[in-house]
Amino acid sequence: MKSTIEADIATAWSLGATKTPLVGIIDELEALEFLGDKDQSGLRRCASVWRDRPSLLPVRSRARFHAAQIEGLLTALGDGIVKVDDLKSDAVGASAMLINAGNVATMLIAPRSDGDYRARADLRRALRRQARRSGEPHIAYRVSRMCGGDFVALSEDGMRPARLPKVLAQHCLSATASEPAAYPVAMARSLQLWLATPVDLADLFDGARTLLAQVDVWRRLQGKIADPSRLDDPIRGAELLAYGRLARIGVWRALDEGDLAVKQAALDLIAPRGRDPDHMRATVEWAVDLGRTVTDLP
After folding, report:
1. How many whole angstroms from its chain centre is CA 63?
2. Nearest to 29 by CA among 252, 248, 210, 282
3. Residues contacting 88, CB < 8 A, separation 6+
């Protein structure tokens, strides 16, 4: 498999990856913004976000595809099959961010099916192994919060691996503007452009804070209406959108001190929110760490 990927990468560059058509890049966290109908009221829109949340199976497929692309490109570079340049470096950086967004989204999005549960369990097992190898108590504690305690770990250890759908790399050429796809490194110009396009982290933060304030209002209303369950879906949808925005702040590049301040503000925002799902809070903390170690400024 690896040699096939390396050959594909070498062929792509020899044919001129710089001449491939530009495509829009949508990561798994940004894709959450396109769920639901924005023309509806906030209540209905958030409820529809929860109901329309994506399956985790294609999310995992795309994350694995991007990991294989990075591995193949780095191997090709190491073997001298292709030469190092800024375009290839940016393709690796962008692909790493796509992987991080996919992994974080997997931890935020509630499974819809048995296959989704198994796909999430696959990632959780990998995170637990990493935590054990690290020997760092704070990492083990955060992973436990994200993935559940010992009882959950025991139940997931016995799950068979998920059967992931096949990824069609050429699909990125026909994907809609709101649809995430698998982006081969042959799309290096598109990946480079995506990496270089600033994201307004402060705007994402303001949007997340507004949604969480709305969650607090709906929670108070739940104690005053005859059927509190009517607000369950809007609350869950608003939490998914809010924590998706905060996680995107975490994994995205911090280009200056202002961006770093926004990342810290995201952590400060969720720290006292004990009524929110703790695995979502821990996942945002993980997202910020991923950004800090992979993409942020020195």
Report:
1. 9
2. 248
3. 13, 73, 77, 82, 185, 188
Residue 38 backbone phi and psi in degrees, to 5 = -70, -15
Is pTM beyond 0.85? Reply is yes
Closest listed residue to residue 269, CA positions, set 288, 254, 252: 288
HSE of 157, CA atoms in CB hemisphere, 13 A? 8
CA distance 27 to 172: 12
Give how far Cα 57 sits from Cα of 157, 169, 170, 179, 219, Å: 18, 16, 19, 15, 31
Distance CA 188, CA 209 (A): 34
Q: What is the pLDDT of residues 113-126, one digit of tens each?
A: 999 999 999 999 99
* Backbone Cα Rg of the chain: 20
User: What is d(CA 127, CA 139) in angstroms, rounded to the nearest whole number?
Assistant: 10
